[in-house]
Automatic annotation (TrEMBL):
Organism: Lentzea xinjiangensis
Polar residues: compositionally biased ranges: 63-80
Annotated segments matching region Disordered: 61-80
Name of the molecule in the record: DUF3558 domain-containing protein
Length: 199
């Protein structure tokens, strides 16, 4: 298969992976049964080595210090590498409600800019707001999904595309409520900066 033919396939695989992560986050935050969760007992799951780009301090700010090995993975082929890092709350450490962080990195891409543009388009599905982040990678966008408490930061840098998805729900007397979007953004941005800085 030539490089030109293989390029669109690589882009399609990247977008499929990002969509799978996005769909998982949406399903997770819409489940009313998990909103009252205070997290799970601390795990010692091993994550792919790339996940070590994210510091414990950044995870603590995001209230997701518990590594989730089952939702993390790394795949490599002749067309590039795809890595997923996942964390959720640690019981007794990260507060109440629900917080979830996933970072997906597609690297060694031949058409990284196209993959970035399509990832941004997919993140903008539904009722969203978008803004550009000027000082991150070659190009970066922050997308806030209004209806389910999710912030996505997508970054193109060189031959890689990184997507940070940080989501949450809070509980009050009336039930499930969306967290402060500014809080989600403030937590997600350091995660994106740290991952991209290590690429």
């Amino acid at each position: 298969m030539t490089g030109e033919r293989r390029g669109p396939l690589v882009v399609a695989l990247v977008i499929t992976g990002l969509l799978a992560i996005d769909a998982g986050v949406i399903a997770y935050v819409r489940d009313p049964g998990v909103v009252e969760s205070h997290g799970t007992p601390k795990r010692d799951d091993a994550l792919p080595s790339l996940c070590r780009n994210i510091s414990e301090a950044a995870l603590a700010r995001a209230r997701t210090t518990n590594p989730n090995g089952q939702a993390s993975s790394e795949q490599e082929s002749g067309t590039g590498k795809y890595t997923v890092c996942s964390w959720n709350q640690t019981e007794g450490v990260d507060g109440t409600g629900l917080r979830k962080t996933r970072v997906a990195v597609s690297s060694d891409l031949r058409h990284a800019r196209i993959a970035y543009e399509q990832a941004v388009q997919q993140a903008r599905r539904g009722t969203t707001t978008q803004r550009t982040i000027d000082d991150l990678g070659d190009q970066a966008s922050l997308v806030r999904r209004e209806e389910n408490g999710t912030v996505s930061i997508i970054v193109w840098k060189g031959d890689s595309v990184t997507e940070v998805v940080h989501s949450g729900r809070d509980a009050d007397r009336s039930g499930s409520v969306e967290p402060d979007p500014e809080e989600l953004e403030a937590a997600a941005l350091p995660l994106a900066r740290e991952m991209v800085a290590g690429l």
